[in-house]
Amino acid sequence: MIMKKQSMVGLFFSMFLRATVIILAIVIVVFGVVFISKVMKKDDGKSKTPATTSSPNVLTEAEGHDSLLYADPSDTTEYITASDTQEEVVEPIMSYDAKILVLNSTDEIGLAGKWCETLGGFGYNNTSASDYYTPQEYTRVISTSPDIGQDLVQYFNGASYEVGTVTTGSSESTDGYDIVIIIGIADGGM
């Protein structure tokens, strides 16, 4: 048997081709294993059919009454639907969009600005900071409308809520603001 001598370039490409085929085979096997394991994990042992029950205690919707539930069709009990109730639930109006002026009535420098940042963290982003010249023991939340501002009282210690305007004592005009918050000593020390 006579062997043909290969050149160095031919030998290199021959080995390169074999190595490429082996690497591709390994990659295909790895991807196949990963794919199969993903498919098996997604199944998670859950059945594709919905769960059913034959228990007589299960509540079901009554025919023709979307909001009426019953347990036994022969039951003669009168049921009250959501539309039959007279009580009206009043949701508090949040003041997120209100223009708010925060006034510092304490000796602590920058307190109003810190409260603006804190309120911004709760979603009240339209805030400005200034000073108030008459010291206050507790924070006052003053709104121009009875519909807004009550939600802000919860963030302060012993704060009061009132409807009105602040005309004096501020280093900035309160005109154009929906809510003015005068920070009291009880809410200092941030």
Strand and helix map with partners:
Layout (H helix, E strand, L loop, with lengths): L7 H36 L16 E3 L2 E6 L29 E5 L6 H11 L5 E5 L8 E4 L16 E4 L15 E5 L7
Parallel strand pairs: 3-4, 3-7, 5-6
Antiparallel strand pairs: 1-2, 5-7
Oligomer: single chain
Give the overall shape, derived from the CA principal axes: elongated
* Total count of helical runs of at least 4 residues: 2
* CATH topology group of the domain at 100-187: Alpha-Beta Plaits
The radius of gyration computed from the alpha-carbon positions, rounded to a whole number of angstroms, is 36 Å
Class by alpha and beta content: alpha/beta
How many strands?
7
* Spatial arrangement of strands, main beta sheet: 4-3-7-5-6
Biggest sheet overview: 5 strands, mixed
Overall description:
This protein is of the alpha/beta class. Helices cover 25% and strands 17% of the residues. It has two helices and seven strands. The strands form two sheets. Strands 4-3-7-5-6 form a five-stranded mixed sheet, with helices on one face. The mean pLDDT is 80.
Brief digest:
This protein is an alpha/beta fold. The protein has helices at residues 8-43, 111-121; strands at 60-62, 65-70, 100-104, 127-131, 140-143, 160-163, 179-183. The protein has two helices and seven strands.
